[in-house]
Protein: Flavin reductase
Amino acid sequence: MSAIDPRTLRNAFGTFMTGVTVVTTRDPEGKPVGFTANSFTSVSLDPPLVLVCLANSSRNRSVFAEAPGFAVNILSEGQKDISNTFARPVEDRFEAVTWRDGPFGAPVLDGVSAWFDCSRHKLVEAGDHVILIGKVEAFDDSPVPGLGYARGAYVTPAMEARALASQAELMVSALIEYQGEVLLIPGDDDSLALPVARVGKEGVSAALAQLIAEHGAGIEPGFIYAVYEDDDAGCQHISFLCQAAEPVSRHGTFKTLVPPVLAKIADPAMRTMLERFAAESRIGNFGVYYGNQVSGKVRPIAAGSGSQ
Amino acid sequence: MSAIDPRTLRNAFGTFMTGVTVVTTRDPEGKPVGFTANSFTSVSLDPPLVLVCLANSSRNRSVFAEAPGFAVNILSEGQKDISNTFARPVEDRFEAVTWRDGPFGAPVLDGVSAWFDCSRHKLVEAGDHVILIGKVEAFDDSPVPGLGYARGAYVTPAMEARALASQAELMVSALIEYQGEVLLIPGDDDSLALPVARVGKEGVSAALAQLIAEHGAGIEPGFIYAVYEDDDAGCQHISFLCQAAEPVSRHGTFKTLVPPVLAKIADPAMRTMLERFAAESRIGNFGVYYGNQVSGKVRPIAAGSGSQ
Structure:
């Protein structure tokens, strides 16, 4: 709790996420005027009303208070520049945007998520601001996601959601071997899997090191054994062949890869890789695999290892 | 543009992103009451005023219109359930939340981004809603990011930004060779680089195929040549050794990896990899590399390739 300190209060107000609007009208000489506002809210559907708050200290106050109407333009996620232009002391703010007159006469901007061209319905004095209530005379919207604002910074959740959805997920798995047996972790439904971890910003090596450390001491991270993508899950996997000093682990158990064990590996790509490992173990010659969850190619590697 | 159809108008209103609040008070019997609202806005700093709109059809209307005050709770990103509870006909909405009395007497919820406990300042009739204007008597905020709402769905931009920031970026590069020469792309400042592309949900193989296709026909995607992480940039790189049928490309040129050419490779990890390639080309024996941008290990692979 705080005493009512304006700066602290402003920060607390800022926790409420908002869209960003540019509110426009024409001054008595017909010149377009406008300002950036996030203190907008829809009020009523029937009659259709919206409101926006305007500071009494604003140089636009009298123009908007006396105008027959105003338009509210809901900025879209790519319109940060327009928000900044209409928030700063710019000589001609409208020079920087493409706009037209709305049906009721206030300027409507191109490329917005929605606009509402309003007649003046009511003015309400409220402290250091005036609440402009407008009656929507005409409006339109588009599917373009809106620009947001929270705690003093723009937010573009739709853009970030698209970026997240388009990004490949990188997974690392450890094929931890001890004298032909492999460490397998029990899952649901009696299934088995290799230890797997998602790779974050820390990188593959660090993710592998942490994955191994979870299973106990004496496990040495080894070389890449397979790089494959799971197209269905949109995941990229990198598997490492690692050596254990003894067949014990905090989780899971070391098992010989006989067919009944392999049959319990739920992930088909992982199962194929372990079938290859079982076959290669018999002949003592290991390769590096590259492909996807159904097919790929293997390059045998020399038993010794160079380094650089 | 549309005629004023309430359903279309509601959708257009929904393009404006908002936070989500739960507005609370106590009824004349002292029972806590509350409802979910996103039609909140801060109005004035001095005096400190906020407003929220309440439908005339709401069963809470008379309670809130007659109460001496109300609290606005700005929900945080993890409080979707609370938003749903206070938006649905639930017998005792307060049973599902942890709350206490605010300093001015209205219920304040735990874990919110901010709360404002208000005295009633003014009521403004506005169409099918009433605008409750409250004077902030006490408030508090927390660093927890807020819950958002846009076009009928919750948004959590801070959560998505954290997920994006924590995700490893996966890059694919093509070491396209023709008789010992390698295709290099000119960059800024007279620098050179291998063709590189970011890997999205389409996966490494598809990204490599597209990268190669951009450079012309007759280039065969080959096997993994290096897997390395760039810890500085938080990127994971997978490089493929590919063969060109002829030394021509739409972009860049094929060059022999002599020291003056290698010196122009701006990325140190890429330069190290190409130095290895130059050395391996001389002895005709190629390996697979794994490491980070400064060190790693190479496993020589057999010249022939198996497949599965």
